[in-house]
Predict the structure.
Amino acid sequence: MLTIGAFARACRLSPKALRLYDELALLRPARVDPDSGYRYYAVAQLERARLVAWLRRLGMPLAGIRDVCALEPAAAAREIRAFWARVEAETAVRRDLAGFLVDHLAASTAVPGKDTTMLELRYAAHSDRGRVRPSNQDTAYAGTRLLAVADGFGPAGAPASGAAVEALRFLDTEEVPAGNVLNLLEEAVRGATDAVRDVADPGENGTTLTALLWTGSQLALVHIGDSRAYLLRDGGLFRITHDHSVVQSLIDEGRLTPEEAGSHPQRAMLLKALTTGTPDLKLHDTRRGDRYLLCSDGLTAVVPEHRIRELLTAHPEPEEAVRALVDAANEAGGPDNVSCVVADVV
């Protein structure tokens, strides 16, 4: 048996932490002296104590540590992997916000007239029923400031996607101040959520939403569901959204490979949609020459990303690019509605 001091040194947890974990039933001592109340630990408890210490260093909440410690090693590894994927996603959001704040504050002290380059968007949008579906439940929109794709589902999927995009269209004519663009977009999405509930029963209907709002120097992104946004920059294609789907969660947990996801029976099942979850909100700095693609899963389910990159690179005009992408989806069988928005920063 080890005293609490010796055990603390061996597992790198403080005696104070060990007393707390005892009270929380997370790490009970092997024996407590009935007279002095002094705690003693068995050597065999060191492995669990070290695991607790490592998980605390990862920043995992105590409730999560308790769950991990109760699992078999393989299941515990999957849970830790899933936790860290969530941490990385949250960190990416904070990183984007920090980058925006640095740029915004630096710009406020810049010398007037030093940078007079004006950027704007050149854009095109196209939506197609596909080769199999009887109707089109997608909505695609491209304007001076707003780009959006929504993929409706359920009997009222088309009204749902249309209502979501229509509720955002006021942003396309409003001067958008860069300083509060995320707050403005968040408020607009709440309005879009209410609009979808007004036209469709959320119990069996809904829609994804992926939209970009142009401030003149940055793009604010809102995303929920499995429609996607990509950035083509310097010849490389980068996905800037994360699917809110069952198969993506299995990939994040290491239980499924991206290759296996394409044939998974639940590949169309969403974890979040506009009326059933909180969207992701991010800011993206832009460069002249950037090309952005917003698309529904009718494209990405049948056209691989390397082919999407080739088509975006081969067609310099946005209108040509969206038509080529939709044609590629239909040539691959067109099993779903397909919508694409392409915008160039010029």
